[in-house]
Design brief:
Elements lengths: L1 E9 L3 H12 L5 E3 L17 E2 L9 E2 H14 L3 E3 L1 E7 L5 E7 L2 E12 L3 E3 L5 H5 L5 E2 L2 H4 L7 E5 L3 H10 L5 E6 L8 H8 L4 E5 L1 E9 L4 E9 L5 E5 L2 E4 L3 E3 L33 E3 L11 H20 L1
Parallel strand pairs: 1-2, 1-8, 2-5, 8-19, 10-17, 11-12, 11-17, 12-13
Antiparallel strand pairs: 3-4, 6-7, 7-8, 9-18, 14-15, 15-16
Helix pairs in contact: 1-2, 1-7, 5-6
Length: 320
Amino acid sequence: MDRHERIVIIGSGPAGLTAAIYAARAAIPPLVIEGLSRGGPPGGQLVNTTDVENYPGFPKGILGPELMGLFKEQAERFGTGFLAGDVESVDLSKRPFTLKIQGVEGDLNVTADALIIATGAQAKWLGLPTEDRLKGYGVSACATCDGFFFRDQHVLVVGGGDTAMEEASYLTKHASKVTLIHRRDDLRASKIMQQRAQENPKIAWMLSHAIEEIVGEPGHGGVKGAKIRNLKTNALSDVECQGVFVAIGHQPNTDLFKGQLEMDESGYLILAGKKGAQTATKVPGVFAAGDVADHVYRQAISAAGTGCMAAIDAERFLSH
């Protein structure tokens, strides 16, 4: 089964659904490919988030899945179409663009005059079973998102690069103590970032250490501590804490576009910004929004903002 759309949006997180709202209100109702498994669940990373307290308009906070449900309801109100499926391949070499999709109702080809990529990025995790169970209950990969919840508490930060130094330094604004854990003696972070963290009296260090287990239960107060291995002596110790922040990097969901779009060394899409279209890629008619092209801010509100921009850029592209 084949179908043609003027605008197709890949991804259904804050960026993709905001783009859908703006495109639909511009009388170009798009088709949103929600995704099933590749790149995370429909709704983006927020569907795995419990309390969201920093999204404007919700002074009492809102659950992540509830917020994304409202996004989708608003997009549907204006005529956005949704397709549950994974994009298997994309051909951007000729117009219209062609997407091969493995959907819940079978395989199909979708062609599009304009494409908005909002496939997001995924945090890299340690791979511990207890880590997965406690995500949103004291385990996080975003200090600016969740640091507020750990006021006057002890938290751990795992990592040795600039991101870990930034996360640890930020968390000292809220936590009473931050312990940074890294597998090696040497840090990968830039010298200036190391110096700032080392000069912060709230940051303690456990180098040549690794977390083996995170202790706690989702329904009983979340994270309570961690079992940490000294990689030089092999000694195992129990450390009491209320939060664990994994800061070992993010991976943008851009494998589909390798060889077709420009990316940086980490795989984030590079935007061309041609003729005032700030979300444009090097391929005319292809735009990107959200974390797939943003390795700096990675917030729901910034993703939504670029989703708005991408929809306006796509609408202007089609009108010309």
